[in-house]
Specification:
The protein contains 11 helices and 8 strands. With about 280 residues, the protein is an alpha/beta fold. The protein has an 8-stranded parallel β-barrel, surrounded by 7 helices. Helix 2 links the parallel strand 1 and strand 2. It is elongated and about 80 Å long. Bound molecules: 3-methyl-2-oxobutanoic acid.
Length: about 280
């Protein structure tokens, strides 16, 4: 058992200790996260775009999520791993939801699952939790409903929509989730929800009053050229730096500067001369 558990995560809210969460989709980057101070990693269904090259989170399959979750989990000896449930892996019925949540733990080796929605998936959350699987909720902008929401836009800007988000967050807590992501909601609504709930809220584009924050690995490191979402801070510009480095390598090969002698070995010359 890792040091970080859902109890630990709940205790951070009681102590008013803000915490960070980051996404990861492969072993190497997850290892870097595991060696960092970040306590929680989400194997997000944003893998659909980042790992598999689709244009939204809708196409990624359960099998594709299990592969990335397993790779990330192998790297995380201390970081708490949450596996995201992809589109239609939990919406159709409670039994489908339990089966797929279970697979994320059994095959994906995650320690908890995340799913999108509130009131309408309360029974799925309840049953998954009562099966012994911790659930992280996700309300506000729920990208799996992008077509229903008419795009990736801030939610909760009018009374009806703000009330729905508050009701959804309450439903998620009521169903037994240990935390809830608030995506792209006004910061004063996020504050009200954070003050109302006893479980930690984890914001993305939801302002500073959430109990924790979550960001996409590739957004904060600047790994995707020209993609600058308002909710993300680019701490580095790695796509530019990596592109420049790849060109240096390519030029060095073209100019015969790489490889040098030290980058390979020789066998004794007798061997070469005895070859026919
Ligand atoms: O899949 C994802 O990247 C998410 C975000 C909340 C970070 O769900």
């Amino acid at each position: 058992m890792k040091n970080i558990t859902i109890k630990t995560i709940g205790s951070w809210k009681k102590k008013s200790k803000p915490f960070s969460v980051i996404t990861a989709y492969d072993y190497t980057s997850a290892k870097i996260v595991d060696d960092s101070d970040i306590p929680i990693v989400l194997v997000g269904d944003s893998a659909s775009m980042i790992t598999y090259g689709f244009s939204s989170t809708l196409p990624v399959s359960m099998d594709e999520m299990l592969l990335v979750s397993r790779a990330v989990s192998k790297a995380c000896s201390s970081t708490f791993v949450v596996g995201d449930m992809p589109f239609l892996s939990y919406q159709p019925s409670v039994s489908i939801a339990i089966k797929n949540a279970g697979l994320l733990l059994k095959k994906g080796r995650a320690e908890a699952v995340k799913l999108e929605g509130g009131v309408e998936i309360k029974s799925q959350i309840k049953k998954i939790v009562s099966s012994g699987i911790p659930v992280m909720g996700h309300v506000g902008l729920t990208p799996q409903s992008v077509n229903q929401l008419s795009g990736h836009r801030i939610q909760g800007k009018d009374i009806k929509s703000a009330q729905k988000i508050l009701d959804d967050a309450r439903a998620v807590e009521d169903a037994g989730a240990f935390s809830v992501v608030l995506e792209c909601v006004p910061q004063n609504l996020a504050k009200l929800i954070s003050d109302t709930l006893t479980i930690p809220t984890i914001g993305i584009g939801a302002g500073p009053h959430c109990d924790g924050q979550i960001q996409v690995f590739h957004d904060i490191l600047g790994l995707i050229d020209g993609f600058n979402p308002k909710h993300a801070k680019k701490y580095l510009n790695l796509s530019t730096d990596i592109g420049k480095t790849l060109n240096v390598y390519s030029q060095e090969v073209a100019n015969k500067k790489f490889p040098q002698k030290k980058h390979s070995t020789s066998c004794i010359s007798d061997i070469i001369s005895s070859l026919e």
